[in-house]
Specification:
The chain has 4 domains: 131 residues, 2-Layer Sandwich (N Utilization Substance Protein A, Chain:P, domain 4); 65 residues, Nucleic acid-binding proteins (OB fold (Dihydrolipoamide Acetyltransferase, E2P), Beta Barrel), CATH 2.40.50.140; 76 residues, K homology (KH) domain (GMP Synthetase, Chain A, domain 3), CATH 3.30.300; 64 residues. It has 16 helices and 15 strands. The protein is 39% helix and 26% strand. Strands 7-6-5-8-9 form a 5-stranded antiparallel β-sheet. Strands 1, 2, 3 and 4 form a 4-stranded mixed β-sheet that branches. By secondary structure, it is an alpha+beta fold. Monomer. Binds directly to the core enzyme of the DNA-dependent RNA polymerase and to nascent RNA. One of its GO terms (biological process) is transcription antitermination. Keywords: Cytoplasm, RNA-binding, Transcription, Transcription antitermination, Transcription regulation, Transcription termination.
């Protein structure tokens, strides 16, 4: 095949590279790798071959340089050529001269050319993935906007500028519902490149997603006037965000919430009506614990010497607020403050009994359930009735057990003490 025909093949390869946004220099480097691979497969070595890149003309020249040796002394066809064969090609050659013969892509055969195309396409795909890996790794923690194009049992595939993003079930807000074609906002959570397989993981449950939403919706956060110290979430249910103002003239909480809650409401809607508590950060651990337990009103906090465990007293009617539905509020408050928190009911009764005293009667599992619904004392349980206890524990305490609990507790008090 002529050099012109070889050039057409190079141009075909160049067209593939342009489609994939591969630069000319990179293309030439890849082509040299591909052709040297072809040479090694045919001749066993590429040491006697020279490849000349012509980026301006968009082609490549290849030369096979061999030493002219006596016919009977030929030992390596890759680096030597017989005198009789060499003089047929160039009568002016003499023994031990070097003969450079130009070779063309098609000299390797049609199958080799097809293999070269496949190798080139594979190498370009690898480079494309490496570029995407680098690009999206640098964007971890950044919000992106994409279109849902496939919904599967375990994940959702999202198209972002012709790049596939994956949102696993664990990174989806439970209340989220999507259809093909829906536009979705999410944050880049992780990027992996394993054995040539690129995986870009995005999330709507990450604390970073909520933090980026604050930056997008609240100018003072974006400008650095307000700093977000920490974000904790129970996605789709409740979040707590600790903020601090770097300007004494700016109220951090007020700026985040906005006039009539307009700023925070746009974020709440994006998160499927997730409740968001915005809290003023303070280095005073006790005060921070009180703020973290909002919307409950805290009477006192007893913090241990290590600062990692707190006993909190709240009014009787605030226990359920402090603990929250399913224990969410106390769980988030503990995560926000980095402190294990136990909530205790403040009572006017001096003869009340801590519910943990009934562990032998009820079992620790039942005691834990009672704590969870705010019944931390005997009188707190007696304010309910068996049917209500069954309802509030979602059946984890059945009707028979509830009646037995009430009987055991009542037996601990005299009749006049129950009035």
């Amino acid at each position: 095949m002529s050099n012109e025909e070889s050039k057409l093949i190079i141009q075909y390869f160049a067209e593939i590279a342009r489609e994939k946004n591969i630069g000319k220099d990179m293309l030439m480097t890849i082509l040299e790798e591909v052709f040297r691979s072809m040479i090694r497969r045919k001749y066993g070595s590429d040491e006697a071959f020279e490849i000349i890149l012509n980026p301006d003309r968009g082609d490549i020249q290849m030369f096979h340089t061999r030493e002219v040796v006596p016919d009977e002394e030929l030992t390596n066809e890759a680096t030597e050529i017989k005198f009789s064969e060499a003089t047929k090609l160039d009568p002016d050659l003499e023994l031990f001269d070097e003969y450079a013969q130009e070779i063309f892509i098609t000299d390797f055969g049609r199958r080799s050319v097809l293999t070269a195309r496949q190798t080139l396409a594979q190498r370009i795909r690898e480079i494309e993935k490496e570029k995407l890996y680098q690009e999206y790794t640098e964007r971890i923690g950044e919000i992106v906007l994409g279109d849902v194009y496939q919904i599967r049992a375990r994940d959702i595939l999202i198209n972002h500028n012709s790049t596939e993003l994956v949102m696993p079930k664990s990174q989806q807000i439970p209340k989220d519902r999507y259809r093909k074609g829906d536009t979705i906002r999410c944050v880049i959570e992780d990027v992996k490149l394993d054995n040539g397989n690129l995986s870009i993981i995005v999330s709507r449950t990450s604390p970073a997603f909520l933090e980026r939403l604050f930056e997008n919706e609240i100018p003072e956060v974006y400008d650095g006037i307000i700093d977000i110290k920490k974000v904790v979430r129970e996605p789709g249910d409740r979040s707590k965000v600790a903020v601090v103002s770097n300007d004494e003239r700016v109220d951090a909480v007020g700026a985040c919430v906005g006039m009539k809650g307009i700023r925070i409401h746009s974020i709440v809607r994006e998160l499927c009506n997730e409740n968001i508590d915005v809290i003023n950060f303070t280095t005073d651990k006790i005060e921070f614990i009180k703020r973290a337990l909002q919307p409950a009103r805290v009477l006192s906090v007893d913090l241990n010497a290590a600062g990692n465990h707190a006993k909190v007293n709240v009014p009787a009617d605030q226990v359920s607020k402090a603990i929250g539905k399913g224990g969410v509020n106390i769980k988030l408050a503990s995560a926000l403050t980095g402190c294990e928190i136990d909530v205790y009911r403040e009572t006017d009764y001096e003869d009340d009994i801590e519910i943990s005293e009934f562990e032998e009667d009820f079992g620790m599992d039942v005691v834990d359930v009672l704590y969870e619904i705010g019944c931390d004392s005997a009188r707190a349980v007696l304010r309910l009735n068996p049917a209500e206890l069954v309802r509030r524990t979602n059946g984890r305490i059945d009707e028979y057990s509830a009646k037995n609990i009430f009987k055991i507790i009542r037996d601990e008090f005299d009749e006049d003490e129950l009035i």
